[in-house]
Design a protein that fits this description.
By secondary structure, the protein is an alpha/beta fold. The chain is built from 9 helices and 12 strands. A 6-stranded mixed beta sheet has the order 8-9-10-3-11-12, with helices on both faces. A hairpin with a 2-residue loop joins β4 and β5. Bound molecules: adenosine-5'-diphosphate and magnesium ion. Adenosine-5'-diphosphate binds next to β2 and α2.
Length: about 270
């Protein structure tokens, strides 16, 4: 817990130094599915252009937290602020204490600021790599086809697949498919990228190429939250490491907390994954 308090002090210091607002603020967030209380008061800040790695055992609420940030689920309590905007609701009433649900269009606009990559690549099987990356810009973003194609080629080149434009998912390795999924998210020009165990479904020999692409996108300045069991990657790439268990942040801080875990639960978790 002391780690978490240090973290917010650091973030405040950072804000004073850089004048930057956090890209994401999560404040007192709870999520329940019926009687199942999955997130029990999460507080977290992510600064622009930084990488936050979320570690934790299965069932600890990591995916649920990402899904709340991206409004794939609605939170039960607390607030999530992305790019300075409260997500999902607008404040109403004289003191701004009341909340009113935003309409679908406003929520879609907020969601468009965030790109998400899942464990399973979820590519359209009947579309080529190029078709998959062009799909959302053309049909959601209403970008003219020729422009979307040019942009999609650029994004596929960015993830090292400039020579696989016309391949179908079934003709690509898992690592290549996941890189297409990353290009597809980037093609919407998100301000923030969320990765939910992006390498967990891959054969071990394909993990490295996907992590390398994520690392490169991070180096280009993208704000990222990455749920991962790749401890080496977290230590190397993340500026902030968060360990969740049982729906709470047990420990958080710089990547050095991986080498010096304070809590028993984090120590035990690291023993199981390292
Ligand atoms: P993690 O990603 O850390 O493995 P999850 O966020 O997926 O954890 O899940 C946390 C808990 O919430 C689990 O017990 C899971 O079964 C439960 N859960 C997740 N999504 C739902 C849902 N849509 N309905 C009911 N329970 C859910
Ligand atoms: Mg998960």
């Amino acid at each position: 817990m002391s780690g978490q308090m240090n973290m917010s002090a650091d973030t405040n210091a950072e804000k004073e130094a850089t004048g930057q607002e956090p890209a994401i603020i999560i404040r007192g967030v709870h999520k329940a599915f019926g009687d199942l209380h999955v997130l029990k008061g999460i507080d977290l800040e992510v600064m622009p252009g930084t990488v936050t790695a979320i570690l934790g055992p299965s069932g600890s609420g990591k995916s649920t937290l990402l899904r709340l940030i991206n409004q794939l689920e609605d939170r039960t309590a607390g607030e999530i602020i992305v790019g300075g905007e409260l997500t999902g609701y607008k404040r109403i009433g004289p003191d701004g204490q009341g909340l009113q649900r935003l309409d679908d269009k406003a929520i879609a606009r907020q969601r468009a600021r965030i790109g998400m990559v899942f464990q399973r690549f979820n590519l359209f099987p009947h579309m080529t790599a190029l078709g998959n990356v062009m799909e959302a810009p053309v049909h959601v973003g209403h970008v003219p086809k020729a422009q979307a194609k040019e942009e999609a080629i650029k994004q596929l080149e960015r993830v090292g697949l400039g020579d696989r434009l016309d391949y179908y998912p079934s003709q690509l390795s898992g690592g290549q498919q996941q890189r297409v999924a990353i290009a597809r998210a980037l093609a919407m020009h998100p301000e923030i990228m969320l990765f939910d165990e992006p390498t967990s479904a891959l054969d071990p020999e394909l993990v490295g190429e996907v992590l390398a692409v994520i690392k490169q996108v991070a180096a280009e300045g993208m704000t990222m939250v990455v749920v991962t069991h790749e401890i080496g990657f977290a230590r190397e790439v993340a500026g902030q490491v968060v360990f969740m268990d049982g729906g709470v942040v047990v420990e958080s801080g710089g990547p050095d907390i991986i080498d010096h875990p304070e809590s028993r639960r984090f120590q035990e978790f690291l023993r199981t994954v390292l």
